[in-house]
Amino acid sequence: MRSILPTLGVGLIVFLAMILGLIVMGIAGMLVPIFGAIIAFVVLLVAGVRWLLGISVSVPVLMQERLGVFGAMSRSRALTKGSRWPMFGVLLILFLAALAFQMMFALLIGLIFAFFSGLSTVALIFGAFGSVLIVTVVSTVASVAIAVAYVELRQVREGTSVDELAEIFS
Fold first, then answer.
1. Within 10 Å of residue 48's Cβ, how many Cβ atoms?
2. Which of 7, 104, 111, 121 is most exposed by smallest CB count within 10 Å?
3. Under-50 pLDDT residues of the chain
4. What is the CA radius of gyration of the chain?
5. Is the dihedral of CA 28, 34, 39, 40 positive or negative?
6. Nearest-5° Cα angle at 46, 147 to 70
């Protein structure tokens, strides 16, 4: 519980950075109507993904090393330096797998709706619970992947043991 406020702080900074990126993209789109928005989108997407990968292990750093919000983000950037492409690949695979599961579930719900001739309360409730379940599983897998990435990065950079993973979850 003592880490909830710093964790929310990391989340707030990420949220504000994304909002700032959208504002900059909107301004660029207004200044140069067609290509400005496209160029701004590509530049901000690449820079944003790079920045997000850099701070991706901020929460495990925050939990394990207790460096504070900005200290954890700085330490995360140092740990991930040189390993961001492999991390991007793993997270992309997880994202695509989650997207596939969500699409299969949406298809299943669509088939249920078609089979029962339209919307029904039971189908809507089933769809809502199923969506919550999928989001919960995907979030859990993503959180574990980030924690494992933190431990692996520490092991590669500093030679720490894998036993520290247990400390993060305890």
1. 17
2. 121
3. none
4. 20
5. positive
6. 50
Distances (CA, A) of 137 to 32, 85, 100, 122, 130: 42, 24, 13, 22, 11
- Tell me what pLDDT residue 166 has: 64
pLDDT of residue 119: 61
pLDDT at 169: 56
Q: What is the pLDDT of residue 107?
A: 84
Give me the long-range contacts of 91-94 (CB less than 8 A, separation at least 24): 91/53, 91/56, 91/142, 91/145, 94/138, 94/141, 94/142, 94/145
- Would you list the domain boundaries of the chain? 1-80, 82-170
Query: String of b and e for 56-71 (b: at least 16 CB within 10 Å)?
Result: bbbbbbbbbeebebee
Residue with tokens 């207004």: 30
